[in-house]
Fold:
Amino acid sequence: MTNPKTDTDNARDLVLVRRFDAPCDLVFRAWTDPKALAQWSGPHGFKAVGDQLEVWPGGRHRACLIAPDGEEHWVGGKYLEVEPPHRLVFTHAWELATGEKSPETVITIALKDSDGGTEMTFRQSGFESASSLEGHEGGWSQSFERLGVFLGLNRKGRIMRKAAMKLYYCETLNPRKACAAARYLEADVEFIRVDLASGEQRTTEFLALNPNGKLPVLQDDAGTLWEANAIMCRLSDSVESDFWPHDHRQIDVLRWLSWDASHFTRHGATLWFETLIKPLFGGKPDVAVIEDAKTSFRLHARVLDDHLATNSVAVGKTLTVADFALAAALPYATSAEIPLAEFRHIQ
Structure:
């Protein structure tokens, strides 16, 4: 890392310019890969522990910086713009001991090629005081010193390498399920967002990966694989996990996957679409469809709830692909009006 530059003339904006001896794509990955972020985030002596990292517009991030004395500092926010490998914009706010959050600021990372390396312009906007800006300047400056060391090691191939697999995703239920499994398994995956709004899923390049024009898609040396459940199984095999078991449990896992697609998430997904997605495109929720989906959900949720009354997971004693499939729509229970509260064992 060379040529540090700091600009604090504006009492509300912190601007730091740094040059790294690494290409833009590597610097961008250092900001968006959870394992990479943990290596350099925070001032000297701090440890970073990631809790949430959804690198897409509207996705959330949350992490804890642990000081040398053990004190925890939680921070989080939302991604506003994600344009690999040159631009990243997200909000940033600290979680205070009172349960409230500090005033929100906006961070913009701009990367450009510079003599075989990368010039990074970091801007944090919206500080309420000069003292807050100065405190963040010290913390970020030390973080970027650690980032420079981290990137230098990577140039020598000692930490980060190209991921073995690429997982193409968007923010709908099935891709989120596959992404959650990849995170849970800590699989060697590069996450690539496909912008449905701009029609990227209909391009010739994407249709060569999946002729259905759907997400998710997993790509590795063996070729491409589509369908979220199949992708979760492949990811499990890639890390030699029994998340997709290869013993007597496998038949039972298949049973729950089939039941879920036909009778459970099917209705939860209908509620998710009618209440949350359709209005985004100017559509009006269909009350009759919603009531029918709630009735069907209740009918089949009772079956799962009774099963979970005596079982902690769907199959066996540990989490499997069946559990992740069954849970696909449940994080939206409140906002999508899914009547989950009636089934305490599922909760």
The first strand starts at residue 2 and ends at 7. The CA atoms of residues 95 and 175 lie 29 Å apart. The mean pLDDT is 91. The radius of gyration is 22 Å.
